[in-house]
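ingest -> validate -> predict -> emit
validate: passed (alphabet ok, no gaps, 78 aa)
predict: started
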Amino acid sequence: MRKLMTAGALALASFVAVSPAQAFMVTSAQADDYIVVAPGDTLGKLAGNRWRAMCELNALANCNVISIGQVLALPPNR
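emit:
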């Protein structure tokens, strides 16, 4: 089951679940919601045709590599 997170929960999760190389904050103005990556998830499954925007929003070095438990910001619906 996927979890959507609030900005407050993201702040806590960023200190607990994200590696130092991935530690950054996305402001609520940039993202609608946050999600925790589950087994089998891909950016395409999570964001559909907005996967490139999701990759950029989360400053991922490789759009094909996400980790179970990683907290990702979902791009705004536009």
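Residues 14-21 have pLDDT under 50 and may be disordered.
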